[in-house]
Design a protein that fits this description.
alpha/beta, seven-stranded mixed sheet, elongated
Length: 292
Amino acid sequence: MNPTDLPSLRETLDAHGLLAKKSFGQHFLLDLNVTRKIVRLAGPFDGRAVIEVGPGPGGLTRALLESDAGKVVLVEKDPRFLPLLAELDDGSGRLTVVEADALGVREAELVEGPAHVVSNLPYNVGTPLLIKWLTGPWTPHALTLMFQKEVAERIVAAPGDDAYGRLAVIAQAVCEAKLVMHLPAAAFTPPPKVASAVVHLVPREDRPERALLAALERVTAAAFGQRRKMLRSSLKPLGGAELCEAAGLSPEDRAEVIDLAGFLRLARAVTGDVQPTAPDSGGATMMRRKRG
């Protein structure tokens, strides 16, 4: 069945007597003009597969099926929506619906070759899912994901920004990340208490190897876990001042001013794979910017 021939999403929800579940962090995006814009921002797909997590009533799914995506795989935890999603299947084999918790899914078993992830993520699992895709064994071709605005800003934040933290460092070490769209709460049913935003992430060709990424996770957890302390104190369990000096950083700096290159040098120092770097060679951005 052609998605354009289907009843509206609101009519479909009403017909099945379905409401969003707060426990699943569900907020439905029913405006197909908006979902089509998100898909345009995610593409072109050039026939590659797309994974969508938490499709709910299928608003984003309809836009994906209208696009140049190849196989479209839906991962839905809520069984109430399986009949609605089945109505989008035209029998061609292009659409696959998997009833599962996305946190436990092995993406490599769902798709072959490079694949995109395009999702309006449930609010309660958005960050854990992103970390899974950034640090796990499966590497997507690209990610186009909707988060709460606050989380989106944390992903793309720069040193000195109020939102800058561990999530920004990990995400930007692995991907080029860009905030591409803002959505008000009124765009959703039911409206959440916060605004949302879409982030587009493309994996870097020079992303860290697994051992270095694991070290980066340790370093950022320690540094931002006590972000008001100087690095010589927050990183004391990993080497403190000596570790900072090995990475060419001042032990008196705080995590919030250290850029990605500086954190990568810290991670290499943790693994023992680092060359001494002069403290004035970069790594700290001293100007602190406030969100306005």
